Amino acid sequence: MISLQKLNKIYTGLAGPVHALKDVDLEIDQGENVVVIGKSGSGKSTLLNIISGIDRPTAGVVKVLDQDLHLLSENDLALWRGRNIGIVFQFYQLLPTLTALDNVRFAMGLVNKIPRKARKRLSLEYLAEVGLSDKVRKFPNELSGGERQRVAIARALANDPQILIADEPTGNLDSNTGAQIGHLFDKLSGQGKTIITVTHASIDTEKFDKVIQISDGNLTHLSTLQRPESV
Questions:
Q1: In terms of CB atoms within 10 Å, which of 9, 100, 145, 195 comes out highest?
Q2: Which residues are CB-contacts of 74 (< 8 A; sequence separation ≥ 6)?
Q3: Domain of 126?
Q4: What is the CATH number of the domain that holds 199?
Q5: Are the beta carbons of 152 and 102 closer than 8 angstroms?
Q6: For the chain, how many structural domains are there in total?
Q7: Is residue 43 part of a domain?
């Protein structure tokens, strides 16, 4: 589903070039629940941005869902991303003038993948999945940080993406809500969605199918775990 080959990303900074990713090779299969662990500045967010097509590599091959991303124009890439990838940004990026319900519904309108008549019903279902059935009419400034994060997760699911990418998705959540989101991600991977979570925090790696550690732009550790089947 995701194939990265000899991936490099170099940024030009005031102090000279910054090698954010160095010869990264990575394969992620459909339905895998993957975590990328690394300190701030290690390259993990750059990795996510390239997989999602937000950024382009300096060198190397990025193939996602059988699509070579470098072959797409910026407009085609934006439409492809909206239809196939859900992104949970670390700092929410909700539209402040829209309610929680309308933030989710607005994402559906951007790519017209979901029939118009189904958008409200599905938006309410996604908000219920993240425990916000009683907050659907609230605006972002009326919600706590954790509630905003959950709206962002519901919005990421809006277009039924095959891949969900989450940058520190539980960083602003209490332990109980964080566990709820973890269970939701596990359920989604069981339904065939590929989940990629990045974090700099300590995390229970046994909950994931694949654990990737990144340091200074290098993949320093990659392990595939065999999780016990649900009874």
A1: 100
A2: none
A3: 29-56+73-224
A4: 3.40.50.300
A5: no
A6: 1
A7: yes
Give the C-alpha separation, 145 to 135, whole Å. 13
Q: How far apart are CA 156 and CA 141, in angstroms?
A: 19
Q: Could you identify the residue written with the tokens 């520190």? A: 168
Q: Which has the closest alpha carbon to 53: 87, 28, 78, 34?
A: 78
Instruction: List the alpha helices (DSSP H) in 15-139.
Output: 44-51, 74-84, 100-111, 116-129
Residue 2 falls inside a structural domain: no
Do the beta carbons of residue 72 and residue 150 sit within 8 Å? no
| Residue-level pLDDT, tens digit, the chain, 231 residues | 999 999 999 999 888 999 999 999 999 999 999 999 999 889 998 999 999 999 999 999 999 999 999 889 999 999 999 999 999 987 889 999 999 999 999 999 999 999 999 999 999 999 999 999 999 999 999 999 889 989 999 999 999 999 999 988 877 778 888 888 888 888 899 999 999 999 876 677 788 999 999 999 999 888 876 555 543
pTM: 0.88
- Report the distance separating Cα 215 and Cα 20, nearest Å: 10
Q: Report if residue 65 sits inside a domain.
A: no
Nearest CA among 132, 138, 144, 149 for reference residue 99: 138
CB–CB of 211/221 below 8 Å? yes
Residue 42 domain-assigned (yes or no): yes
pLDDT of residue 113: 94
